[in-house]
Design brief:
Keywords: Golgi apparatus, Membrane, Transmembrane, Transmembrane helix. This is Golgi transport 1A. With 136 residues, the protein is mainly α. The chain is 78% helix and 0% strand. It has one domain.
Length: 136
């Protein structure tokens, strides 16, 4: 089992509540208050989990500026009463930020008993290998 410090446990709680509020805000037809709480908690919880310096280093790398700018613009638009457009920009920004992790996630999900066969299909496996080679 992974041992977490008290600060990391607090960050996991903030991030968990952030994800909950985001999902609940989307289910309630893009309620801007819930989306705003979710965004603030999600962005606020991440530095508690991985540390402030690592958070800035991750988001402000030269190759991730596009994803960071789209994500932060989406958060700002969701807070400024444009929740649908804000969530679209946030989703694109998160996809751009974390596209390097998709091959790893695909390999992990291929070992699941129920859904593993989907990720072992040749078309998905070839795409995940091509995306993974861009990282190197």
């Amino acid at each position: 089992m992974i041992s977490l410090t008290d600060t990391q446990k607090f960050g996991v709680g903030l991030t968990g509540f952030g994800v909950f509020f985001l999902l609940f805000g989307v289910l309630l037809y893009f309620d801007r208050v819930l989306l705003g709480f979710g965004n603030i908690l999600l962005v606020g919880g991440l530095p508690f989990i991985i540390g402030l310096q690592k958070t800035f280093r991750f988001f402000f790398q030269k190759q991730k500026v596009k994803g960071t700018s789209f994500f932060l613009a989406g958060v700002l638009l969701a807070l400024l009463r444009w929740p649908v457009l804000g969530m679209v920009l946030e989703t694109y920004g998160l996809f751009t930020l974390f596209k390097g992790f998709f091959p790893v996630i695909s390999r992990i999900l291929s070992n699941l008993p129920g859904l593993g066969f989907i990720f072992k299909l040749p078309s998905l496996r070839d795409q995940s290998l091509s995306v993974g080679s861009e990282i190197l």
